[in-house]
Amino acid sequence: MDVFVFVLFCTISFIQAAQFTKDDCLKPVQIGPVQCKAAFRVFSWRKGKCQETIYGGCFPSKNNFKTLEQCKQVAATICSS
């Protein structure tokens, strides 16, 4: 079971990394219109790092990650280069 979860996580990260481009680094942080707020991680090009923000849950940009680690692996790598 642990191997399956690991492979699934790696696959999702790879797919997300393949879809995330340098242009996505400049997309603004979107809070979203939904009342149900959740914490998400985004890459802040102004700060040059991933940070936590509150997101409403509808129509996310590609610059929206469930974990800080995922943000660092995908966005920070692309946006910092």
UniProtKB/TrEMBL annotation:
Alphabetically sorted, this entry's keywords are: Signal
- Which range is the signal sequence, renumbered to this chain? 1-17
Q: Which residues form the BPTI/Kunitz inhibitor domain?
A: 25-75
Q: What is this protein's name?
A: BPTI/Kunitz inhibitor domain-containing protein
Q: Which organism is it from?
A: Cryptolaemus montrouzieri
Lineage start: Eukaryota, Metazoa, Ecdysozoa, Arthropoda, Hexapoda
